[in-house]
Amino acid sequence: MEIQPQLVLLEKTLLNIEGMGRQLYPQLDLWTTAKPYMEHWMRDQIGLRTLFQRSVDNWPALAERLPELPAAASRLIEHFDRQANLHPNSPSVDLQDIQRALQASNRRLLSTLAASVLAICATVLLLLPAPEPRVPLLLPGVAVLLIITSLGLLWRALLSPYRATS
Fold this sequence. Notes:
This protein is an all-alpha fold. The chain contains 6 helices and no strands. The chain has 2 domains: about 1-65; about 95-165. α2 (about 30-45) packs parallel to α3 (about 50-65).
């Protein structure tokens, strides 16, 4: 539903008027003042009398199409029957799209979590003191490997929505 700019400006104007009115007269409640007018306007717009008047105004066009109503209902029923016969027991396309999107989202979430765990492990490896300096670059090398793997998983998780749409 699109909000019309005129209505936003009208609401802003009413708010300003109410603010100025309350400065001049603190007991002013614009909404209780406007309520009877709004109720009258609503009755004029969607009341029973208006509904009856619109029905009377539109009756000639409705009466002209009334003989076509049974045939249109029959065509509609046949259309639904054909649709049911074309795709028996299959979920709708919208449902399949939602399932695919959910699976892709779950894969991205799992990749992101795995990348986070690998990055935390790499950080822990770099912060812990090395027990023996037999192989001096082993812990930093493993940490770098974990960080590269983590970045690869994050890259894949972040790019997968764009690859699916193109």
